[in-house]
Design a protein that fits this description.
mainly alpha; 5 helices; globular
């Protein structure tokens, strides 16, 4: 499969995911205390992700048409399963379904660490420095985001098991 075909496929997957996130944002309960509402941020992110997906689809389609016009032959490779991609999708789906019962802070800590583990090169966690940085980032970022949303934007993220 050529690079432009892979780009088209990934653009389509992200477009479908952005549509899913946008539709799922309507299931978030509205509160009167929020000025923008808790639906605002997921909807904005999904709109931006959808626009970027469309840009990727169109640019890769143009590139594919240009390659065909110039008569470039791409080598055919056998289909291979991209395990980190499948595991990332599984992590995202698990995160989506477990967010309310578990809560934002503990689930995001686990999710970030697992996602970092998937995305870093193999064997990179053997370095203690990278492991410590990953753990600190996985703990500090969700706590900072939670307090930013809670006190700064007055948007209440799911507390889950914390309360």
């Amino acid at each position: 499969m050529s690079e432009s075909r892979k780009d088209q496929l990934s653009g389509l997957v992200f477009l479908a995911f952005s549509i899913f996130v946008y539709a799922a944002s309507f299931s978030i309960k509205m509160t009167k205390a929020d000025s923008l509402g808790p639906q605002f941020f997921p909807q904005i992110v999904s709109i931006v992700m959808g626009i970027l997906s469309l840009v990727q689809i169109f640019s890769s389609t143009r590139k594919n048409l240009k390659e065909k016009r110039e008569g470039k032959q791409t080598e055919k490779k056998p289909f291979a399963v991209n395990l980190p991609l499948l595991l990332s999708i599984a992590l995202l789906l698990g995160y989506y379904y477990l967010l309310k019962p578990v809560g934002f802070i503990p689930l995001t800590i686990v999710y970030l660490f697992c996602q970092m583990y998937l995305l870093f090169p193999k064997g990179s966690f053997k370095e203690k420095k990278l492991l410590i940085i990953s753990l600190c980032t996985s703990v500090a970022v969700p706590i900072a985001v939670y307090y930013l949303f809670y006190y700064g934007f007055q948007i209440f993220l799911p507390a889950g098991i914390l309360g």
